[in-house]
Amino acid sequence: MKYKDAGVNIQEGYKAVKFIKEHALGTYNDRVLSGIGSFSALYDISGYKNPLLVSGADGVGTKLKIAFKMGIYDTVGIDCVAMCVNDILCCGATPLFFLDYIACGKLDAEIVSLIVSGIAKGCKMAGCSLIGGETAEMPDFYQEGDYDIAGFAVGIVEKDRIVDGSSIEDGDLLIGIESSGCHSNGYSLIRKLIKDLDKDFEGRKIGEVLLEPTTIYVPYVLPLLQKYKIKGMAHITGGGFYENIPRMFKEDFTAVIDKESFEIPSIFKYIMSLGVEEKEMFNTFNMGIGFVLCVERGSEEYILDELNFMGKKAFVIGHVEKGGGGVCIE
């Protein structure tokens, strides 16, 4: 009996690795000291004065179910990178490198290549290198046609440049940067509400709208950190406004959000029309704001202008008040 008889195709695995190498090499820079295929990867972090490494891991979640039903495999790779690098960005870190984990019931090298092409694209957008990962074929554990994707990002920040929320004060302003859609959260609820992925929605299949990849905020936020005092940052992921915005606070503050200060995208309005209450929406989805900055008064107009110049709509969505704790949406 051979390994292939048990459901694991080694030759297909070799084929997938060949494709992966081609995509990964396009993300390399001079700091990558080893190639795909080694037992581990080496990355040079010389040149920093007092560096701290920052790490984060995440996955794409059940958005994958929609991707595979639609036969669209590349955009979820971008999602995987975005969910990790946006998280480590919140403390001011520059992403250095990324590793992925892809598991499936039956390996199809062509599909893995498409997934990894998206991961490589996301890495290029974030300015980091795809230096390793794992592709696991696990028959009887996953159904044939099912894939799971997760990733791990490592970034770096000088110790005196950490953004940790410790300088946030009463009266500071909250700037929200637009999202590209649902990003990678709330899809278990979405899949219960939206069954027909081919349904027309504003001239596109709604399945395509739901697969719009998560915005990678790294190229927009890192330049701001060099010029302005950004006191705190929040990536609006699972848990929406209520769970994520308070994560930037070190003390007892309330984030007061003006829901009229930004336009809620039509996809969220549609989901709400299917029977989801507004508070539940703000507790599950990003509602059109994917990343939040806490800044001192007087700098907001300059920051908004720079973000708009870079092609990202941004809004003053609220302010910080001492005491109370949590989020107040009014």
From TrEMBL:
Recorded catalytic reaction(s): these are: 2-formamido-N(1)-(5-O-phospho-beta-D-ribosyl)acetamidine + ATP = 5-amino-1-(5-phospho-beta-D-ribosyl)imidazole + ADP + phosphate + H(+)
What gene is this protein a product of? Answer: purM
Instruction: Give the family from UniProt.
Output: Belongs to the AIR synthase family.
Question: What CDD domains does the annotation carry?
Answer: PurM
The record's listing under PANTHER family reads: TRIFUNCTIONAL PURINE BIOSYNTHETIC PROTEIN ADENOSINE-3 (PTHR10520:SF12), TRIFUNCTIONAL PURINE BIOSYNTHETIC PROTEIN ADENOSINE-3-RELATED (PTHR10520)
Keyword Nucleotide-binding listed: yes
One of the GO BP terms on file:
'de novo' IMP biosynthetic process
- Its protein name is Phosphoribosylformylglycinamidine cyclo-ligase
Q: Which UniProt keywords apply?
A: ATP-binding, Cytoplasm, Ligase, Nucleotide-binding, Purine biosynthesis
What is the phylogenetic placement of the source species in the record? Bacteria, Bacillati, Bacillota, Clostridia, Eubacteriales
